Amino acid sequence: MKRIAILGSTGSIGRSTLSVAEAYPDRFEIVALAAGSKVDAAFEQACRWHPRVISLAAEADADALRLRLKKEGLSQIEVVHGAAGTVRVATHLGVDFVVSAIVGVAGLEATYEAVRAGKIVGLANKECLVAAGELITAEARRQGKPLLPIDSEHNAVHQCLRGGRMEEVERIWLTASGGPFLNTPRSDFASITVEQALNHPTWKMGQRITIDSATLMNKGFEVIEACRLFHMPPGKVEVLVHPQSTIHSMVEFVDGSILAQFSVTDMRLPILYALTYPERIPSDMRFPVGDLRHLDFCPPDMNKFPCLRLAYEAAEAGGAKTVALNAADEVAVAAFLAGAVRFDEIPTIIEDVLSRTNSVELGSIKQVLEADAEARRYAEQRLLERKRVVRPRATSFA
Amino acid sequence: MKRIAILGSTGSIGRSTLSVAEAYPDRFEIVALAAGSKVDAAFEQACRWHPRVISLAAEADADALRLRLKKEGLSQIEVVHGAAGTVRVATHLGVDFVVSAIVGVAGLEATYEAVRAGKIVGLANKECLVAAGELITAEARRQGKPLLPIDSEHNAVHQCLRGGRMEEVERIWLTASGGPFLNTPRSDFASITVEQALNHPTWKMGQRITIDSATLMNKGFEVIEACRLFHMPPGKVEVLVHPQSTIHSMVEFVDGSILAQFSVTDMRLPILYALTYPERIPSDMRFPVGDLRHLDFCPPDMNKFPCLRLAYEAAEAGGAKTVALNAADEVAVAAFLAGAVRFDEIPTIIEDVLSRTNSVELGSIKQVLEADAEARRYAEQRLLERKRVVRPRATSFA
After folding, report:
1. What ipTM describes this predicted complex?
2. A252 and B287: CB-CB below 8 Å?
3. Tell me: the pLDDT tens digits for B231-241?
4. CB B256 to CB A292 under 8 A?
5. pLDDT class for B394, splitting at 50, 70, 90?
6. In Å, how far are A192, A311, B65, B190, B191 from A336, measured between CA atoms?
7. What are phi and psi of B294, to 5 degrees?
8. Which of A98, A215, A319, B337 has the smallest number of CB atoms closer than 10 Å to its CB?
9. In chain A, which residues have their Cβ closer than 8 Å to the Cβ of B250?
10. Inter-chain contact B289–A257, Cβ cutoff 8 Å?
11. pLDDT tens digits, residue range A315-336?
12. pTM score of the predicted model
C-alpha cells in the first residue's frame, strides 16, 4: 500500500491522481491533500477519501471546511491552511509519495520540503524544475530518492532512459505538438487572438499552459526541466515538432539507438507510472497500436517561436535567469489574455526582463521566491510603461 | 576484452561483426572463426585477425588453407573442418561470446553446443530459434546466460524490454516493411517474377530472405523467433507494417505504455549492441532524428500474405511444425527462384507440407535435423509430383 499526499488535489492532475487511486484501491491510500480555494471540491474529496490531513489556502476556508467535516462526523480529519499547511501535507509522517501538482511558485516550498523529508516526489509542477530545479534535484540526490516526472514528455524520457545508463545517453528529444500556429506565417502572429491561441490541437489544459504551448515557451520550460531532471546540458536536449503528439519523447543513446515512448494522451498514465515505479501495473489505457497510420515530424522554427530560443538561453545561463524566464512569461501571458499585449509581444517582454536579470546562483527557495518576485515586478512595471492597450484584431484569419 | 568466435565469418553478418571488432580494437579479440567454402576470404580473415582456430566446411579446403597460412608464417593458427570443426570454434575455451551467423540448419548444432558450453550467444541464424528454439532457449536458461538477438527487430524488442519486467509485457509489435508487394493487388500475385520479388524496398539481403520478405514469411519466422526468445505466446506477438522500416519494433507494457526502438538500418548496430550488452558504447551510426518527417503504418493483410498466417499456425503448434515450416519454405523458395513454381504457390506448398507434419516435440538437435530432412524430402517429392514447370510471365506488370 503506497500512502499518498497530493499538493493541488482539486486541480486537473490532482483529480486524475485520485481517479488512479480509485481504480486501484488495494494499492494506494490517500493520506493528505492540499487544495487551494475550492472549498466544495475539497469537502467532497475529504468525505470520499478520509485523508488524515487536508489543507486549504485561506484560514477562513479551512475553518469553514472543519465545521462542515464535523457535521459529517469526520472531525478526525485535521484541517490546516496556508503555506505551512501545504508543507504539513507534503511532509506528513504517514506519507510515502507526494504528488506535486500545485500550479506556480506556490508549490515550490512544500515540494522542496517533501524532498527534504525523504518522500518520493512525483513532479507535475513546472516551476519546481524551471525555477528551483538545481536546488530540488540536488536535495533529491542527497536523499537518494527519485524525482518522478508526471507529465507526458519527461515521463516518456524517464521510461526510455531505462534502456541504458545515464552516461550512455547522447541526447534527449522532446516532441512538441507545435501548437495551433505551427503552420501560421510569422507575419500573421501580430494579429493572433486570445481565442485562437487557446485552441490547442491535442491537449485540453489550463489557460496559461495553452498559451505557453502556442508560443512554444511550454516546450522551452520542458527543455529546462529535462536538463535539471536528467542532468543534461541544454545542447543535449532537442525539440522535434510532432503534430500528432503520439510519441511523447525519445532518448538517443551513444551507440546510435533511439528509444521512443508513446501511449494514449491521458495524464492518468504518467501518474500511474510514477506512483508504481519501478513496477508497471495493468491499466485500461490501451493505445490502439494496430490502428497507427501516420506520424509526422519537423524541426521547430526558432525564428517564428522566439520563446523557445529564450528558454535555451536561460537554460544555458541557469540560476536566476530561468526564474525570470518563468516569471516574465507568466506576466506576459496574463497581459496577452487580458488583451493588453499582442501575441508576438510575449517574447519581447520576456527578452526584456531576461536582459535585466543577472545570472546569479540561487541557494535557497527563499532566494528563488525573491528572484521570482523581482522579475515579476520588473515585467509588470515594463508593461505599465508601455501605457497602451493593443487589442488583437479578432477575425484577422480563419 | 571480449573474446569472440564467429560462426559464418565470411557471410554478411560475419563480415559486419569483424568490421565492428575493427572499430574497437581495445574491446574485442577475434579468437575463432568458422567460414564455409570461401577459402580466399577465410585466408584473408586469418591473416588479418590471427584467430587461434579457423574452420572450413570441406577437409580439402582446410588442408589448402593450412598450407597457405604456413607460408605466411601463421602455422600457429589451428585449421579444422566440417561440423566438428564448427563445434570446435563455437566451444573454444578462449571464447566468451559466439556470433551465430551460419545460414540454415547447418548452424544449429554448433550454436546449441556454444550455449551448452556456457558461452554468451548472439543469434543471427533464424533456424536456431525457428527450428530449435525450444531446445536452445531452455539450455540458455539452464546456463543462466543471455541469448542476444542480432537482427534489427528482435534487437529492438530486446532494447524496449529494458523498460520493464517480462511479466509487465502486454504485447510485442514487430514492424515489417511489407516487402515489394505491399500495394500489389492479390490478383497480380500469380504473375510476380523472380526479379520483382528480389527487389526489396529497404534492406539488401540474400536471395532466400528477400523472397521470404516478399511473402511475409520472414516476418512469420520473426514472430516464431520472438515467441521463443522472449517466452511469449503467438497471440501476444503482433505484426505492424511500417514501409520505412525506421522503427525496428516495439513493446507494449501492461500499463499502456509503448516503447519503440529506431536507428539507422545498419546491421553493425545490433551486432555492437549484442557484443557490448549490458553496456552501450559510442558509435558513428547516428540516425538523423532531426530529419525525421513521416512514418507510416498499416496492418498486415493475411489473405494476401498467407505465409504469415501459416507461421502463426506453426507457432501455436510448436515442435516439428516450425521445423517443417522452415524446411518447406526453403524448398518452395528455391523452386520459385528456379522458375519451377509461381510466387503465389509458395504458401500452397508450405501449407501442404505443414498439413502432413505432426506437431511432435523434438528433444534433441538430432531430432530437429531429422524432422527438417523429412519435411524437405516431402516438399521436394510434392514438387516433383506436380511434373510441371510454370514460368512466371516476365513483364506482366511494371
Report:
1. 0.94
2. yes
3. 999 999 999 99
4. no
5. very low
6. 10, 19, 80, 65, 65
7. -135, 140
8. B337
9. 289
10. no
11. 999 989 999 999 999 999 999 9
12. 0.95
